[in-house]
Design brief:
The complex is a heterodimer of chains A (156) and B (732). With 156 residues, chain A is of the alpha+beta class. Chain A contains 5 helices and 5 strands. Chain A has 2 domains: 2-76, Roll (Ubiquitin-like (UB roll)); 84-151, DNA polymerase, domain 1. Helices cover 35% and strands 13% of the residues of chain A. A 5-stranded mixed β-sheet of chain A has the order 2-1-5-3-4, sandwiched between helices. Chain A is globular, with a radius of gyration of 15 Å. Chain B has 3 domains: 37-216, Aldehyde Oxidoreductase, domain 4 (2-Layer Sandwich); 223-295 and 356-433, Aldehyde Oxidoreductase, domain 4, CATH 3.30.365; 302-348 and 445-728, Aldehyde Oxidoreductase, domain 4 (2-Layer Sandwich), CATH 3.30.365. Chain B is 27% helix and 23% strand. Chain B contains 18 helices and 29 strands. A 7-stranded mixed β-sheet of chain B has the order 12-13-10-20-17-18-19. In chain B, strands 15-23-22-21-16 form a 5-stranded mixed β-sheet, sandwiched between helices. In chain B, helix 2 (78-90) packs parallel to helix 4 (129-151), helix 4 crosses helix 5 and helix 14 packs parallel to helix 18. Chain B is globular. At the A-B interface, helix 1, helix 2, helix 3, helix 4 and helix 5 of A face helix 6, helix 7 and helix 17 of B.
């Protein structure tokens, strides 16, 4: 049994302690926005926030998450789907197949929380997710646009 | 415990089954999937509430327009593009357009009214544009007719725009939603005129994609995300050696592990563990002792395959001619100067972000499958085969794909497996999900080839003769033998070298011979975004640069001279050269390379700007031009061009699958890396539709990325890279 705080709500799950957080989110809590792709922490499709930091959930055993830590998934990123990153992504039509995008959006949101005006070099270093459709240039534009939206009084 | 069914906005629909026994017979209530699934009842014309005007168009009383899309959305934007084509002729309010997939089973029941479901070869729009536009035009006519009849006025006194029908003389108006039910009862007109391209209002407009919003909030349901009531989860492992089999497995060792419900053989080459959750299934599968009968290819290595291909470079055995004109051998004998080079291109995995998966439920008289597929009809055939049921008793519900790139079109191994597992647990839905490792081990790989090119220059340094000998694997021989030529040739091998057609060579060479020595190693090949143009464009476009250099000519001038009869190809080439400032100095340390091809019916070219510092290659900018004839959605074309470069450059820099002891060595993204954002060049896209034809978009530009970069690397370093990926090259 593990107690977690996910998207602001405490939840209890009955799983083996070694189960990665990704599979707890997807299979116990029905939060399937967080994706499985590589399972070894490389591609970033499973990125969630833990206490505001971008974390790859596929290699993190649930036992290592403390009940007081705030886990936020793509479903909980914004109340009305209006996080500046989501708005910028909609404006620029960033996703193609979209499978990696929840992970990239969560990565971008964490980057902006820490660094409100990231440079191209900051984005290069901060976004290491894999996207096989190749949305990178729009991801970069999207992060810059989200930074502007955020500065101009956007939500979150 | 399993989670509740996904709470996306959706209708719910009932799978009707006469199956006795299983809970299935009671009418299992299953979630429909966002906007994508058509309830069979609706499509069957049981249009009590939502009138289907025709197969393509459903209009709700509130004027919402639902456009049916037979092809699959996998990121390439075809859902939006096809909807634009229908809506252009329908003349509906675009802001009220949504889409849905008809099921392949419904397509069969309705005499294949939606045509092809196959989504590959950049054909989605170009092969269906005529009939989907007609579908929209017919629906519009029926809606106008219904209004005219209600008003008792002549049809030709009425016009339609933005879902509003106006009786011009009286100014009276009504909406599509109000007349849709009456329109649905009319006999469709046999002849409708399609709009002149000059009158298009929606085609050619950079409208937003229709499928973006759900992809931003985690609401888009992919195959991996599907949850059905009572569903179990399966993890699978197949013999890592191709054609190998399962010898035995010890199910008792894992049966008592948490959540495990069953351990089953799948076909003769795989074992699956079925459990409450996928993580439990995978954990148990990892602990399951399996011994393999590795079969006859247990020792196969990349070195063996290399030898096979090397032999084919000069052999006379199993050689097919793809294009010939003049006398290449004599031309080479007469040439003032001959140049020779051998290039090589490896196996590559599609590596879609979403691993292979399918969910199936089987009873004695019904089988239903949910899966991401590039070809719903092929998925249905695979499901029926595996189910051992007549195809009429099966159906497939398509979900948007988390990447396709060719992996999910011609091959439905994951469907066959899912049904085979579900068949062993009658009435229980089972979701099969592959690990990334399984996906890497059991791909249908980009085929391996080598190419020897010999070119002859005349005394003026112009190309007089060219002999191209490709040696390597045929995709069709393994995948579609029925599509091969009568003499056994595989025409797909010659993409970019054909005399004419969608993949014609862009040059006129006085004496030309293009051949293929077919050498088929026991590794399953497949269609991989771009297919054979990927390597053929490297072979030809890099070698053309080698010839230009040998002739002491500028690569653009050298090409121009061969392109007098290829004006559309020349136009895209000149467009990128102009924009790049070809002939003028680039920034310090930056060097340029060109490439041009005609492929998938479109004319494309690229100019890459590259620097090489201490052996490290940096691609700064690629300018790309595309002439697809008609450009349906220019902003999506830009997205496809940029994306194709990520796929093409990932292949160029990193992509290689090698064989050792009969198995693929690479197992995940750590040893099969993909390009990252930091490596992404600036991409400038020129869309220059010249009209009069429909070319493809998803694939063509992938082919010009690699040769343009390789030619720029030569300009920067003086080194010719003839074997990819680049990780093998020392450019310092």
């Amino acid at each position: 049994m593990a107690t977690l705080k996910v998207n602001g709500k405490p939840v209890e799950v009955d799983v083996d302690a070694s189960t990665p957080l990704l599979w707890v989110l997807r299979e116990q809590l029905g939060l399937t926005g967080t994706k499985y792709s590589c399972g070894i922490g490389i591609c970033g499709s499973c990125t969630v926030h833990i206490d505001g930091a971008a974390v790859r959930a596929c290699t993190l055993p649930v036992s290592e998450v403390n009940p007081n830590q705030e886990i936020v998934t793509i479903e909980g990123l914004s109340a009305n789907n209006d996080h500046p990153v989501q708005r910028a992504w909609a404006e620029l039509d960033v996703p193609q197949c979209g499978y990696c995008q929840p992970g990239i959006i969560m990565t971008a949101a964490a980057l902006l929380a820490e660094n409100p005006r990231p440079s191209d070099a900051d984005i290069d270093a901060g976004v290491t997710n894999i996207c096989r459709c190749g949305t990178f240039n729009r991801v970069r534009q999207g992060i810059h646009l989200a930074a502007e939206l955020k500065q101009n009084g956007g939500a979150s | 415990m399993s989670a509740d069914p996904i709470t996306v906005s959706r209708r719910e629909f009932l799978i009707r089954s006469t199956a006795a026994g299983a809970g299935f017979a009671l009418g299992l209530t299953l979630p429909a999937l966002g906007c994508n699934a058509v309830a069979a009842e609706d499509a069957a014309g049981g249009a009590d509430e939502v009138p289907e005007v025709n197969a393509w168009v459903v209009i709700h009383p509130d004027d919402t327009v639902v456009i049916r899309i037979a092809r699959s959305e996998m990121g390439q934007g075809t859902l939006t593009g096809l909807a634009q084509l229908v809506a252009e002729e329908l003349m509906c309010d675009w802001s009220k357009v949504t889409t849905e997939y008809p099921t392949p089973g419904e397509n069969l029941r309705r005499d294949r009214v939606w045509g092809s479901f196959s989504t590959g070869g950049s054909r989605g729009i170009r092969e269906s544009e005529a009939y989907v536009r007609k579908g929209g035009a017919v629906a519009r006519q029926m809606l106008i007719q219904a209004a005219a009849e209600a008003w008792d006025v002549p049809m030709d006194a009425c016009t339609a725009a933005d879902s509003v029908i106006t009786h011009t003389p009286s100014g009276r108006t009504t909406t599509y939603g109000k007349v849709a039910k009456a329109a649905a009862e009319l006999w469709p007109p046999e002849h409708v005129a399609l709009k002149d391209p000059a009158d298009w209002q929606l085609i050619g407009k950079p409208v937003k994609r229709l499928d973006t919003v759900d992809k931003l909030h985690g609401k888009q349901v992919y195959g991996t995300d599907l949850v059905l009531p009572g569903m179990l989860n399966a993890a699978i492992k197949a013999c890592p050696v191709f054609t190998g089999k399962v010898e035995s497995f010890d199910a008792d060792k894992v049966r008592s592990m948490p959540g495990v419900r069953a351990v089953v053989a799948v076909g003769d080459n795989a074992v699956a563990v079925v459990a409450d959750t996928w993580w439990q299934a995978k954990t148990a599968l990892d602990a399951l002792p399996i011994s393999w009968d590795k079969g006859p290819h247990a020792d196969l290595s990349s070195a063996d395959i290399d030898k096979m291909l090397d032999e084919g470079l000069t052999s006379d055995e199993q050689v097919f001619v793809g294009n010939a004109g003049g006398d290449a051998r004599q031309g080479l004998a007469d040439a003032a100067q001959t140049i020779e080079a051998v290039y090589a291109y490896p196996y590559q995995n599609h590596a879609t972000m979403e691993p292979m998966n399918a969910t199936a439920v089987w009873t004695e008289d019904r089988c239903e499958v949910w899966c991401p597929t590039q070809d719903g009809m092929a998925a249905l055939e695979a499901a029926a085969d595996a189910a051992g049921l007549p195809i009429e008793q099966c159906d497939v519900h398509k979900l948007h794909l988390g990447g396709g790139f060719g992996r999910r079109g011609a091959f439905h191994d994951f469907v066959t497996q899912a049904v085979s597992i579900a068949k062993q647990l009658p009435g229980t839905p089972v979701k099969l999900l592959w690990t990334r490792e399984e996906d890497m081990a059991h791909g249908h790989y980009h085929p391996i080839t080598k190419c020897r090119l010999v070119g002859g220059l005349d005394e003026n340094g112009d190309l007089a003769a060219l002999h191209v000998r490709i040696s390597g694997q045929s995709i069709l021989a393994a995948v579609r033998p029925g599509w091969m030529a009568e003499d056994g040739a595989d025409p797909v091998t010659f993409q970019g070298f054909h005399a004419d057609g969608d993949h014609a060579i862009s040059y006129s060479v006085p004496n030309l011979l293009v051949e293929h020595a077919m050498r088929n190693p026991p590794v399953p090949p497949g269609f991989w975004r771009g297919v054979n143009i990927n390597q053929n464009a490297i072979y030809l476009e890099c070698f053309i640069d080698e010839l230009a250099q040998a002739a002491g000519k500028d690569p653009l001038d050298f090409r121009r001279k061969l392109m007098a009869d290829h004006p559309k190809s020349l136009a895209v080439l000149e467009a990128v050269a102009d924009k790049a400032g070809w002939g003028q100095a680039a920034a310090d340390g930056v060097h340029r390379g060109l490439a041009v091809v005609k492929t998938f019916g479109s004319y494309v070219a690229a100019c890459a700007e590259v620097s090489v510092d201490g052996g490290e290659v940096k691609v700064h900018r690629i300018i790309a031009a595309t002439d697809p004839g008609y450009a349906v959605n220019p902003q999506q074309i830009e997205a496809q061009v940029e994306g194709s470069f990520v796929y093409g450059l990932s292949a160029l820099f990193h992509g290689e699958c090698t064989l050792e002891d009969g198995a693929v060595v690479q197992s995940n993204f750590h040893d099969y890396p993909s390009m990252q954002l930091k490596d992404m060049p600036k991409v400038e896209v020129i869309v220059m539709p010249s009209g009069g034809f429909w070319g493809g978009i998803g694939e063509p530009t992938i082919a010009v990325a690699a040769p343009a970069v390789l030619n720029a690397i030569f300009a920067a370093t003086g080194k010719r890279v003839r074997r990819v990926p680049l990780k093998h090259q020392d450019l310092s």
